[in-house]
Amino acid sequence: MLITYTEEINGINYTFSAEEALRPFAEPLLEAIEYIPTERITDGFRIRAGFSTFLLSEHGKGYDIAAPDYTDDPLTALNTDLTLALHIQYRQVLLLHKYGVVGKAVHFYDKLAVAKGALEKPNISMQRFGDLGGSGWSVQNFVYDEKGSARLVDAEDYEGVYAYELLTRRPELIDVLCLPDGYIAVFKGEELVQLLDDENNELIQHREH
């Protein structure tokens, strides 16, 4: 159920909407607002938090909190329904907690270096580099040889893809974007099948059949 919330912080009312189940994930944003000196709070003030950048829009005697509108063009459009923005945060935090990892944020406008055509292939390998620029993520596809061994497909060209574009092109990849430098994530279709840390340790424990 979508609910509109109004929270008073340092004497100022802040209003936003979100699905009720995701309300707890707005707390870090509200805490960030609490620590901003009130004299700095103005119409159009931006707060970068995790994947999203939130904007304060003056409304009456308070402010609406808006997020990039990922159903439109998030570089220009805003939405006071924070459900999708908080859902992305929820999924990323869930993954970090699951594997006991301290994350490194990727913002929606950061770019990934994607081998041309890789996002249309079922098998994806992603690695994050500290010196790559943008998000640090490089994305390639892989195939299996006749012996069943995986092999990365040599890329002749790469394209810069905004992180938010994955929401429509390969949404399952969004979850791992918060992993730190040196990590490798491997997908077969929508399933994350392998996760390696920066020391090449396998974090996904596969069951023996």
Which properties best describe this structure?
2 domains, six-stranded mixed β-sheet, 3 helices, elongated, mainly beta, 209 residues, 14% helix
Description:
The protein is mainly beta and 209 residues long. Helices cover 14% and strands 36% of the residues. The strands form 2 sheets. Strands 7, 8, 9, 10, 11, 12 and 13 form a 7-stranded mixed beta sheet that branches. A hairpin with an 8-residue loop joins strand 8 and strand 9. It is elongated, with a radius of gyration of 19 Å.
Mean pLDDT: 91
Main sheet properties: 7 strands, mixed
Give a count of the beta strands, DSSP E runs of length 2 or more: 13
Strand content: 35-45%
SSE order, one letter for each helix or strand: EEHEEEEHEEEEEHEE
The secondary-structure class comes to mainly beta
How many H/I helical runs? 3
Number of domains: 2
- Overall morphology: elongated
Low-confidence stretches: none
Cα radius of gyration in angstroms:
19 Å
- The amount of helix comes to 10-25%
For the termini, the CA-CA separation is 41 Å
Which helices and strands appear, and what pairs or packs with what?
Blueprint: E1 2-9, E2 12-19, H1 27-34, E3 46-49, E4 52-59, E5 62-68, E6 78-79, H2 83-99, E7 111-115, E8 123-128, E9 137-144, E10 150-152, E11 158-162, H3 166-169, E12 184-188, E13 191-196
Parallel strand pairs: 2-5, 7-9
Antiparallel strand pairs: 1-2, 3-4, 4-5, 5-6, 7-11, 8-9, 8-12, 9-10, 12-13
